[in-house]
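Moderator note: this is an archived Q&A kept for reference. The question asked for a predicted structure of one protein chain; the sequence and the answer are reproduced below.
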Amino acid sequence: MPWRYVIDRRPSNPIAMARMLWNLVDIIRREKPDLIVTAMPAANILAAIAARIAGRKSCVVISHHSPTETHNPLLNRIDGLAGSLDSVKAVVSVSDSVSSTLANKSARYRAKRITIHNALPPEIEQLLENLAAERAGRIGTGRKVVATGRLAYQKNYPLLIRAAVHMPDVDIDIVGNGPDEDALKTLTAALGVTERVHFLGHRPRAEA
């Protein structure tokens, strides 16, 4: 199925935004979808409002992939209103930490929250199975912990780094980057575990 765009460029003024919304309403009325799934803050709002205006009983599922404090504050407030509409049947978060940032939304909004954790692509699943088969039966003297994700407070990396102090036979590889990277490296040095806690930076999924 080919991609179809509501507009051909990012709206630059209120008139263009209204046109984008109306185009989406027209598509919903014409295509009569049973399910609408969105994955960006602005799309969450547009789909909820457009489905309501279109008069369709489409099931709208909006999703959050990052903490709401990283969103535009105005979009975040409008999202709270749009997500409370009857057209929105579920509000999906990719982690419990992301879901917790929705706690200041209305009770109607919060009641729709569910968490569906990000899945691994099939090729990564196969890679993990291959690695497990290669290492089957091996007996090692040390242990390795690999943590992947954004270096932000929601991930609670300080807990992992402090745990390294009490596990002298464990090496920790931390894959990812984020706003807390410098603070985490400072903590690692302060605890004297820099030789066993390694910051590997961002890596492509297959490499990670």
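Archived answer notes: The first strand starts at residue 35 and ends at 37.
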